[in-house]
Specification:
By secondary structure, this protein is an alpha+beta fold. Helix content is 26%, strand content 34%. It is built from three helices and nine strands. Strands 1, 2, 5, 6, 7, 8 and 9 form a seven-stranded mixed beta sheet that branches. A two-stranded antiparallel ribbon has the order 3-4. The chain is elongated and about 75 Å long. It starts with a strand and ends with a helix. The model has no long low-confidence stretch (mean pLDDT 84).
Length: 155
Amino acid sequence: MLVRYPKDLKLPLVSTHRLSQNPNLLRTEMASGRARQRKRFQSVPTTMAATWKLKADQAVILEGFVKHGTNDAVNWFVMPIRTPQGLIDHDVRFKQSPLESCSFNGGFWSYSADIEIKERQVVNEEATANNLLEPNTLDEFVNGVSDALDTYQEN
């Protein structure tokens, strides 16, 4: 069981909120000018750049969490990540310790680190199918196809 990101600690600032997924396509150029593409892996990690700008009491929580909760940024942990679906818990780990880049300016402690997301959560297949079939539901679509086949076979 993974340790959870502290609920009393602000989530990191992500100014552009850029989630960079590692490449997962293998592309082979053919002599004809066309190309074949295929998926290399079932899932690939995603990287997110994060910064924290914290008051002293929050900085204490972050430093303790990194040191003791993640074993000096070695272990995976669970943290909510903003996605188009909202905040969703993901398994993540630090690619480097946020304690490596600590600075104090204007009453705030600043930290930064890249965070590796094990597998970015996206909408499931059923919800995708429902979105593609709108305004029909999946059941309405299936019934419509069934009715069309019945009508076709009768003619």
